[in-house]
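quick one, 720 residues, struct below
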Amino acid sequence: MSFWFKVWPMRPSIFHILLLACALAMVPIIATRAQHQESAPAADQDWPVWGGAPDNDHYSPLAQINRSNVKQLEVAWTFDTGEKGGLQTSPLIVGGKLYAISPTQKIFALDAATGEPLWTFDSAIKGMQPDRGLAYWSDGAEKRILVGIMNFLYALDATTGKPIASFGKDGRVDLQEDLGREPRWQSIALTSPGIVYKDFIIVGGRNPETLPAPPGDIRAYDVRTGRLRWSFHTIPHPGEFGYDTWPKDAWKTSGAANNWAGMSLDVKRGIVYVPTGSAAFDFYGADRIGDNLFANCLIALNAETGQRIWHFQAVRHDLWDRDFPSAPALLTIKHEGQYIDGVAQTSKQGFVFLFDRVTGQPLFPIAYRRYPHSELPGEQTAEEQGLPTKPAPYARQSISENELTNRTPEAHRWALEQFRNLRNEGQFVPFLVGKETLVFPGFDGGAEWGGPAIDPETGILYVNSNEMAWTASLFEDKGEHGARAIYMSQCAVCHGETMAGSPPEIPALAGVGDRLSPADITLTIKTGKGRMPAFPNLYEDQLNGLVNFLLTGENKELSSSEPRPAGMKYRLTGYRRFLDPEGYPPIGPPWGTLNAIDLNSGEYKWKINLGEYPSLAALGMKNTGSENYGGPIVTAGGLLFIGATNFDRKFRAFDKDTGELLWETTLPFAGNATPATYAINGRQYVVIAAGGGKDPKFGSGGVYLAFALANKANFRAPRK
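---
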């Protein structure tokens, strides 16, 4: 109070009296704020949208758990679904209830403070596809959960879990319909949740990587009735913008160019931001000559009408499966002295694309240049491809001999011998027949579906990245016939010409009869499983012939005269991770990273390795980084939470300013999912789904774990 004695006159005026009154009035406010930072309970806070909010920034204003006390985290509750198969789900938390999904796509609600079950919905469909989340809608009176189970979009009463009978047919909409093609032959699954705008639920879907595949239409349905409100054709129809970037009738036969990665929404402006994947077939496009809008695009659509506002195509005539792999994040940055509302999109190649979200203008220059042309007959590669000049890529773009593994002398010699037989020329190099090309970053990135987190206080983007090399080549289809032709046209793109696969995510099919019955194989082909889409397009004799071929290798002639799946002249020999004979990367670390990028300037704030192999760590080779799936979240408490790492099964908290590791715990299975955070009754929780399944040496499951501070006495003020 000495300041007031210095300025206070012997005879105060009315002005001074008013000044003192204002100062005294501020005292409880200042005290209240200080008390709130120090020890006050967290205000109740939901996580009502996949990604935390419609802008998908993965951010929470909660600060009860902060730098000073995060080491006091303990398990508050767990919920074991009792199922195997893995989880990629980020749950929703609304009004004290947590809504989530089991590995077989049962939908359930828990008490978010205790983990006690409230209800479960079993559709009687055994879900075999990844399912990354749900959507929530309420008009104040009704509360609905909108969720994909295989090819169906369900509307459930959020209070009881029962289907809303007035939505679609008996509570669900079949996404195989409304695509302009025979519904029963369409392979589509809603693996990432739709996004709610007003009374619409806007959805994409997962499609096959090869033909036949349905078009990747973006569709909006009425949340009350399930009626289709609008469609945006990602393969344009005659008269639509972009139609001239495809052959004349491609809209009737081509497929994919789909949104499988989720969407983000500017609620105020009514703009939905839609990233899309490549067109089928991914690696040879003689049937789709042209740039192929709107494949490999970020599209800004009017959420009310589905009309295009702007778009950016990252890869023209994609021959490398370079999808945009995650929903973009919306943020406001200070760019060249002005505050701009932006949209940030991460990519498999390891780049961040940053745009003005209203105009689509790139905020950092994109440099276009020519790349080698394809040598395959009938193929026409795009004249130019573009990559942003800033920020610098968060994944290495090439590998040299000097960067091969030195884990052991034997591993190095093996890697060197293999490496010298690979074509290694960087991005956008067309694949060859009979010659393996190094794909780096690999087919899974770079960034993947977990997506980035944004700190709105600073404009810093946090993204985890894989640094794994894969290899690929093409083979010529000799016009085979019979059951083997079905395998080559539908299965070889993933499992390879020799059925070797890329375990554990793409299993080898040699000897598949030793672990699966004919009925199990048939069901898997019909419904898909994991990364494998469903194949409803096969006729009975084709399906039976394929199953017999997988079991016996016998190339039976097919009896029916029905049309066969579309054939391509050239096919991929299979997705193959570049791994040494012991299953480790033959390139030197890092094998996975976590990156903090200031999007105001485009400069890196920090970069660290993320994850390790326990078997190597035990030998002293620690902190190598590892493959990781699932994204981060960031909080006002100064923390970044992330699971993601495949092999060490860790859940970690880092200082968001420095990248310093502040806390970690080991999960029962790898947390290949994006966490969520919320507060109930004054207590903050962080929850993550742990399902694993990507480590061939460890099993899979379906467990949700919530963490909270052990004791309120541990609450301290966040460190500035």
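The mean pLDDT is 90.
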